[in-house]
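Action item from last week, closing it out:
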Amino acid sequence: MSEIINAPLPRQVADAYVDALVALDPITGTYLGVPESAPLLPDFSPAGQEALAELARATLTRLDAAEDRPGADSDVERRCARLLRERLTADLAIHEAQEHLRTVSNLSSPLHSVRDCFTLMPTETDAHWNDIAARLRAVPAALDGYRASLATGLERQLPAGPRQVATVIGQLGEWIGTDGGWFAAFTKEGPQSLRAELDASAVAANGALVVLRDWLRDVYAPGIAGAPNVVGRDRYRRWSRQWNGTDLDLDEAYAYGWSEYHRIHDEMRTEAAKILPGATPWETLRHLDTHGEAVEGAEATRVWLQKLMDDTIAALDGTHFELADRIKQVESMLAPPGSAAAPYYTSPSMDFSRPGRTWLPTMGETRFPLYDLVTTWYHEGVPGHHLQLAQWVHVADQLSRYQATVGQVSANCEGWALYAERLMDELGYLTDPERRLGYLDAQMMRSLRVIVDIGMHVELEIPDHSPFHPGERWTPELAQEFFGLHSGRPADFVESELVRYLGLPGQAIGYKLGERAWLTGRDAARAAHGESFDAKKWHMAALSQGSLGLDDLVAELSAL
């Protein structure tokens, strides 16, 4: 009995897990703002991956004891315990299926983590640049470990998809460049006193990219030739659990995607007619690409997006949200060259010394239509990812660091961000036909993701009510064609998106399914409270719960 009484509570177990994880994964430490992580990179080899799995197993054992301790049944402890158990169980299912031996993606992989972590490192002092140089020197070993994992997968006949591999080889070519590459460009702003060290370290890091690129091209790609690009139902179920925090009914989700497709399509036709009568929605969007409201120049666009977020915070704070001062700071950034096509957000460090940031990939463009940017920055910035993820960090002492950071469930976060776009439409910020059509196009894209991501990976039949190839089975080629026919975005974006879905099965469906969970929870809470329902109070309570899988999310939101 004394062992149970002396056992830590679930939140203590969760935060001990974060500490141990940072020791194994210094990139996570950088995201959290842990200074000691700065010179280091993780071990991406099979042994390094097994160490992470062993940490998860040991943590689950400690959680068993923690849940028996008096006080573990409080709401805050219960939520944390449920999240920790669900996340670690999902992680172990992925590990035990040896998915870490075939991780190739154009957006999220060990390779991308190695590069992206440099964009989050502080650069104000010589000591910061010393850390950058040390981490650059660690790049070859980190990428050797990643290559060892892929080589082990190759030996075990666990291939990544050829299309993903070809895309990443192309990305590596862009990062390597012809004049020292991305790492040399990144370090050029470093102090002159460290110039020789930074230059040598950047050369070593760039050389590691060359070695990996050549191995992928000359050894790995031939070794996986003919492998499928899709994962099949069993692998898809594991991955969808990882991204959505629940075991989904894939056939029901697929049908929901189609129902949203038809609903949104009808609304898009109505808005398009206000702009270009007689044209289809996508003809209208292409018209807006050249004739609609736009900002010229990448830097001017960055500044415009910063003002949009600042103005949105000023309009929503005190009316629909109650924001702490440190949450009101968010930075608009340009994504580094060679990024995937989609904009993204990075969370603040735990002490807010590094603020939340939105990132715009320019893809070589110089003209940026606003019909697309406005709703996207409601999603990535305010009231989307920034308000949720920064609020989690703000209340981390009331939750746990785990719930506020590494315990993140993708569909919860992406669902909130898509809900945020809808909220801005509900509040009347998207009445301009151009911007509302852009919002609906974004909603359509998320519906298409549900259809094609599930459809092609599980090889489902295209239904009879589809205007596109009814009765046929989905393939990546059909998915790309369908996506292109129903998108106002350029062909290179559509290509990048499709490869993203192939490399991250189950992730893309979380936007629409997560939005549905947020709406379901809000509707239930509103029905329970009737006229006394306070949307501002509900929003802040909902954003202060930390991460939850979709089933748990609906239950908790409904009870607020």
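Closing note: Residues 2-228 form one domain.
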